[in-house]
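User: My collaborator sent over this chain with a note saying "see what the structure looks like." That's all I know about it. Can you take a look?
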Amino acid sequence: MKKLYILAVISALFFVISCKQSYTVKYPVTRKVDTVNTYFGVKIHDPYRWLENDTSKETANWIQAQNSVTFDYLSKIPFREKIREQLTKIWNYPKLRVPFHEGPYYFFFKNDGLQNQYVLYFRKGLQGEPNILLDPNKLSTDGTIALSSVKVSHDGKFLAYSISHSGSDWNEVYIMEIETQKILPEHLQWVKFPGIAWKGDGFYYNRFPEPTHGGELSEKNANQTIWFHKVGTDQQADQLIYENRNFPLRRYRINITDDERFLILYESESTSGNALYYKDLKKKEIPFTAIIEGFDNEYSIIDNLDDKLLVVTNYLAPKKKLVLIDPMKPLPGNWKIIIPEREDVLQSVDIAGNKIISEYMQFAMSRAYVYDMNGKFLEEIHLPGLGTFSGFNGRKGDNIAFYGYSTFRYPTTVFKYEVTTNTSTVYTRPEIDFNPDLYEAKQVSYLTRDRTSITMFLVYKKGLKLNGQNPTLLYGYGGFNVNMTPVFNVSRTVFLENGGIYAVPNLRGGGEYGENWHKAGIKEKKQNVFDDFIAAAEYLISENYTSPAKLAILGGSNGGLLVGACMTQRPDLFKVAIPQVGLFDMLRYHKFTIGYSWKSDYGSSETMDGFNYLIKYSPLHNLKKGVNYPATLAFTADHDDRVVPAHTFKFMATLQEANNGQNPMLVRIEIKAGHGAGTPTSKQIEESTDLWSFVFFNLGMKLE
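Assistant: Without extra context I'll predict from the sequence alone. Here is the result:
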């Protein structure tokens, strides 16, 4: 009996040792080159510059080798398949987006549960039988062709729609005759963010010149132009409406008022601030005329009221206001204030019936109010709890409108709204295998490094014990005026169900508290964002929610930069880091695709001041040899032409070389995918499976 016991102990020890050995990671050797750039007298080495060549065979081999290591590691996590099963089960519920109305039809997107792409339906009137108008799942066998945007002509006769391949921002535009569902022969190419605006039997849109062969996914996008396409003609016959050869890096967006009278042109140099031009289409001989020039403030036209334009702006109003501008007398002294700035942040304005519907953000949660067309307050739209109001779709002449509402604990419910009575009724409520009553969502506040008060949402199972041992995921963004508000994420449920805490701070750089809040986290003040995130982690630890050994951080795109900066500045504070499609080389980000348009938030290494503050936090340039970094799983994709994958490639090659601990440093490179938009459900489930498997395993979580 004693021998059997000793053998059992030896076997157990052998099993433990074998498991540890099976998780030892041997990274591919990444070739280094002697590439050096000098910035204002400072030499910066860039030994992995060759990984910026996304079409080379060597880069392809590197991707294959890295994926091989990563998937070998993930395949050995014992509960990976169980996580996949749980995610697939909970993902499988019908999802419907907010309907919209054009001509005699109502349109809506629906996913039956596990369809790779949402399907576009239409019905004649509210009581008509819904029918499929366009099913993008039939465009590819693997779901990697996605429907990027749709725009219906005002009479409901035509549908212009754009598709993207493998997650790229490049779009191709097609036209369908709605009544017959016949797809017309024309095919528009080299379009990004098309901004289609219908006028009669054609539409305005923007496009770029055709890129050089091989440069489609990385070449800088310059010389954007505006065109008019007439239905039934070839793209070569399109009419050039606007170009500006003097400023090739300026970006343009076109829109049109609901009555098709005023054509609106937005001009921008970056992601913040825009100039505003208009053209009265009743006076075709008059070119675009400036309403607002310069890029110091933001202006967004809601619609026209006869000869005047309703505009939301942050001019002398960091939390925004609604004004009426006579384009013939556009100076601010002539504006009429319809809704003045208030304490809460004005998020959006819509017109339904003959009323103004305004959405505000109060402590990063939605409130909605109704005004008459002169700006007189009428009533509040009573929203169900504390969450996020989204997608309000109504028309000037309609009494019926629709909107969506979600919280951290349940997915988007679509409401039908009657304008005259200010009543909302549930139109569709998802049935999902997740009980929201078992969970608590609350908002706390904490002080960051410079004593600024930051709010943060926490979501977890009721009955949580503050013992410092709870696995916690801290998610952040902190940039570009983007708001982190209560929304449901189906992938996150598996973490919550297994005892995890989900934490979302409202970092500076976002827009939750207005433009001043945004500006407090940009350029030379970008470090504020990282300090806010680090302080959120310290708060969670000091309040006994969790500990460094149980804390993971996650963020995507600008949030990937956030994760990269914080894991390099405070590697001791986190056990796991998940940067997704992030920016890591802040000295060269502006050299690829549309990266130059982010200078309003980041600044640029082309100036001495910009270089001096960027080099201090650029994740790639702040990795140090001999440091024990958190267990890292970086996500990127081969067709990401917004934040090019070279950021992740170079960062992870450097991290693998620098790390001096036992934590894994892995990169997962999705094939035939991009920055996130249009990712098929099957790939979303696969990515979520690997994300949570890595987090669970490295936080020592048990799968219930």
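A starting point for your reply to your collaborator: Residues 149 and 162 are 5 Å apart (CA to CA).
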